[in-house]
Write a structure and sequence with these properties.
The structure is a homodimer of 364-residue chains. By secondary structure, chain A is α/β, with parallel strands linked by helices. Chain A has 3 domains: 1-75, 434 Repressor (Amino-terminal Domain), CATH 1.10.260.40; 87-195 and 325-352, Rossmann fold, CATH 3.40.50.2300; 197-323 and 354-360, Rossmann fold, CATH 3.40.50.2300. Chain A contains 13 helices and 12 strands. Chain A has a 6-stranded parallel sheet, with helices on both faces. In chain A, helix 5 (100-115) links the parallel strand 1 and strand 2. In chain A, helix 5 crosses helix 13, helix 6 runs parallel beside helix 7 (156-164) and helix 9 (196-209) runs parallel beside helix 10. Chain A is elongated, with a radius of gyration of 28 Å. Chains A and B meet through helix 4, helix 5, strand 2, helix 6 and helix 11 of A and helix 4, helix 5, strand 2, helix 6 and helix 11 of B. Strand 2 of chain A pairs antiparallel with strand 2 of chain B. Chain A binds a DNA duplex (21 and 21 nucleotides) through helix 2 and helix 4.
DNA sequence: CCATATAGTCCTCCAAGCCCC
DNA sequence: CGGGGCTTGGAGGACTATATG
C-alpha cells in the first residue's frame, strides 16, 4: 500500500537564482527531511517518531507516520550507522561448505542474532587456511561489522587473530583451550562450544561399555580444532578403560573419505568397533562394510558424530552424538552482546548427548 | 604489526577558548583526517590513495600508506555508503533450514558475490510463510542492502513482493513461470533457476525407459515452487509415455517424511518405481523398504533429487538429479549486477543432470 | 599534473525555544 | 512567572565529488 513517492508531496520552492539547472537527479529515496516537510514538522521530530522516543504528541506522531507511509520512507542505515557508530551487523565466517555442523551453527546463530536485533553478514569458506580466513575477516571488518564469529575454526585462525588486534570482539565457536595451545589468548577473543572431547568420550565409552576391546577412530582433518578434540576424547576414554589404541585413520570429513577408510580397514583387519568423527564418515564406512558383506552391528559396531538429519535412516540407523546447535547459537549471541557491552564474558561449553540407535546395539 | 593509534601522532592544537572540557571521548577509530594529518596531506589526498585514484605522486602515496599502516586505519563503511549510495551488501533470504539445496545455493551465491566485491547478509528462515519472509525482507532493506536474493521461494513470496514495490532489485532463485501463475511479474523482479521440471522429467523418463509401467511420485511440500515444478515434470513424463499416475504422496522434505511415505506404500501396495522429490525423502523411503525386506533396485527402483553429498553412499547408492549450484550462484550474481547496472536481464534456466547409480539399475 | 578547499550526504545528539497552564 | 512537555535549529560524524589553486 505504498503510494508513489511524490503523490501529493508539497511543491518545493526552488530558488530562482541563476544557478545552472541541476541534472535530472536520479530518483533519490525519500529522506527524513522529505517526511518532515510533508508532515509539517522538523526532521528531528521525525527522528523521534522512528526511534520511539516518548516526547511526541500522539497527533504529531500520527501525521508523521502517515507521511512515512505515504512516501515509503525508510531510514538510511548508513547515515544512522555513521552517527551512532553501530552498524547492527555481525559478521560470521564459516568453514566447511555445506557440512551439517557449521551450517546448523550458522543458522541458529542467525536466528539468535535476529531476535537480538542484529543482522548477520557471512563469509562461507570452503577451506580454513590462513589466507582465506584473513581475507574474509578483512572484508567483514571493511563493511563495518560490530563483531565477528568464527564457526568451525581451523588452526589457521590462530595466526589471523594476532593480526586483527581486537578492533572488534571475536568469538570462536570452538573449544579454545584445546585449540590454541600455548600462546595466551588475545584480548577480545572469546569462545563458546559444545564439548567435542566430551562427546567423543561418550561415544567411545558407549562402545567400550558394550564389551568391545578395541575402538578404532576414524578422525577428521587434524587442522580442525573439533577434529583434534574428538581424537583427544576418544584417546582419553580408551586410556581410562585401559584399552590400547591404534593410530586414528585421518582423512577429510566426507562420506567418500569414510568409504576409503572402510576399504582400508577391510584390508588391514576389521575391528569390532569404530568411532567416526562425523556422520558422513560413518555413512561412507557403512557403505564399504555393506559392500564387503560385513554386518553392522553384528560384526562391527559404528558410532558417528553430529546426528545429522538423515542419520536415523541410514542402514542401519546410526548411533551418534548430538549437539544442541540452537543452544550454541544462543550462547554465542549472549557472549557477543556481553562483549559488546564492554564485559569480558567467560567461555561457554555445552554438553553433547549420545543418541543410541541400531548401528551399535550388539556387543560382539 | 599495528602500532597503537596515537603513537607519534601530531598533537592537535586545541583551541584555547573557554569551552567546557570535552569528556574523555572513548577511543575513536582513526579517521581519514587523522591519516591526513600524520602524512602531512589533506584528507582528500588520502581518499585518492585508498580509492586507487591515479593522480597521486608515488612519494605522497607512500607517505599516506605508511600513515594508514601506522594508525591501523580502515575506511568507515557507513560514511562511504552514505555518500556513494552504495552499501556493497546483498541480502539473501533462504528457506529450508539446513537442507542441501538452499544451503548450497547460498554458499555458491556468496562465493560469486565475494568475487564481485559484494558481501552477503543472510536471513535463514525455517518456514517460508508470508510473515517470516516479509519480516526478513524488511530487516534486510533496513540495513541497506542493494538487492535481495530469495533462495528456494515458497508461494508466500508472491504476496510479499507486491509489498516491496521494487525499491531494490529482487532475484528469485526459482522457476518463476511455474511459480506465480497468473499475476504479471512486478518490475525489478528477476529469476534464475535450475530447471526443476526438466530434472523431474529426466528422472521419470529414466525409470520409464527401464520398463517400469508406473512411477509413483513422492512429492515435497506444495507451497514450494520447486516441489510444484517437480510434480509437473513427473506428470509430464508420465503423460508423454501414456502411463497413468496415482496422486503423488505429498509431505515435507525430510527423511522422516520419506519413511512415513514408504510405510504407506508398503500398506497400499508397493509400485515398481518411485521418484522422490529429494534425496532425503528417498533415504527415508529406502529405510522403510529395507526394514520390510523389499529389495532396491530388484523389487523397487528409486530415484531422488539433489545429489546431496551422501547420496552416493546410501544403501544402495542413489540415482538422483544433480543441480549445478555453482553455476546457479554465478548466474544469480550476473543477473543481479546487470539489474543493478540498470538493465533488465532475462531469466536464466540451467539444465540439471541425471546421475545414475545402483538404486535404479534393473528394470522389473 | 597534483593537491587543496568546499559543499553535500542523512542522520542523531545537544542546547535552546515555544507554549500553555 | 516559571516549569515541564513538545518541538526546533544547528553542529557534527567520515567520507566522496566538484570545482579551484
Amino acid at each position: 500500500m505504498v503510494d508513489r513517492p511524490d503523490a501529493g508531496a508539497p511543491v518545493r520552492d526552488d530558488r530562482d537564482d541563476g544557478a545552472p539547472p541541476r541534472p535530472p537527479a536520479e530518483p533519490r529515496p525519500p529522506s527524513m527531511a522529505d517526511v518532515a516537510a510533508r508532515a509539517g514538522v522538523s526532521h528531528q521530530t521525525v527522528s523521534r517518531v522512528v526511534n520511539a522516543h516518548p516526547s511526541v504528541l500522539p497527533g504529531t506522531r500520527e501525521r508523521v507516520l502517515a507521511a512515512i507511509d505515504a512516501l515509503g520512507y525508510r531510514r538510511n542505515s548508513a547515515a544512522r550507522a555513521l552517527v551512532t557508530r553501530r552498524s547492527g551487523v555481525l559478521g560470521a565466517i564459516t568453514v566447511g561448505g555445506t557440512d551439517y555442523g557449521p551450517t546448523s551453527t550458522l543458522l541458529e546463530l542467525e536466528d539468535a542474532a535476529r531476535a537480538a536485533g542484529y543482522v548477520v553478514t557471512v563469509a562461507t569458506l570452503r577451506r580454513g587456511d590462513e589466507a582465506s580466513i584473513g581475507h574474509a575477516l578483512d572484508r567483514l571488518l571493511d563493511v563495518g561489522v560490530e563483531a565477528v564469529v568464527v564457526v568451525a575454526p581451523t588452526v589457521g585462525v590462530a595466526a589471523v587473530l594476532e593480526h586483527v588486534r581486537a578492533s572488534v570482539p571475536v568469538l570462536l565457536v570452538s573449544s579454545w583451550v584445546a585449540g590454541l595451545q600455548g600462546g595466551p589468548r588475545p584480548v577480545g577473543v572469546h569462545a563458546v562450544a559444545v564439548g567435542q572431547q566430551e562427546g567423543a568420550r561418550l561415544a567411545t565409552e558407549h562402545l567400550l561399555a558394550a564389551g568391545h576391546r578395541e575402538v578404532v577412530h576414524l578422525a577428521g582433518p587434524q587442522d580442525w580444532f573439533d577434529a583434534q578434540d574428538r581424537v583427544a576424547g576418544w584417546r582419553e576414554a580408551c586410556a581410562v578403560a585401559g584399552v590400547r589404541t591404534r593410530a586414528p585413520i585421518t582423512s577429510g570429513w566426507d562420506a567418500a573419505d569414510g568409504y576409503a577408510a572402510g576399504r582400508r580397514l577391510l584390508d588391514e583387519g576389521v575391528p569390532s568397533a569404530v568411532f567416526a568423527a562425523n556422520d558422513q564418515l560413518a555413512l561412507g564406512l557403512l557403505r564399504a562394510l555393506a559392500e564387503a558383506g560385513v554386518r553392522v552391528p553384528e560384526d562391527v559396531a559404528v558410532v558417528g558424530f553430529d546426528d545429522e538429519p538423515g542419520a536415523a535412516f541410514y542402514s542401519p540407523p546410526l548411533t551418534t552424538v548430538r549437539q544442541d546447535f540452537a543452544a550454541l547459537g544462543r550462547a554465542a549471541l549472549e557472549t557477543l552482546t556481553a562483549a559488546l557491552a564492554g564485559g569480558d564474558p567467560a567461555d561457554v561449553v555445552l554438553t553433547p548427548q549420545l543418541v543410541v540407535r541400531a548401528s551399535s546395539h550388539r556387543p560382539s
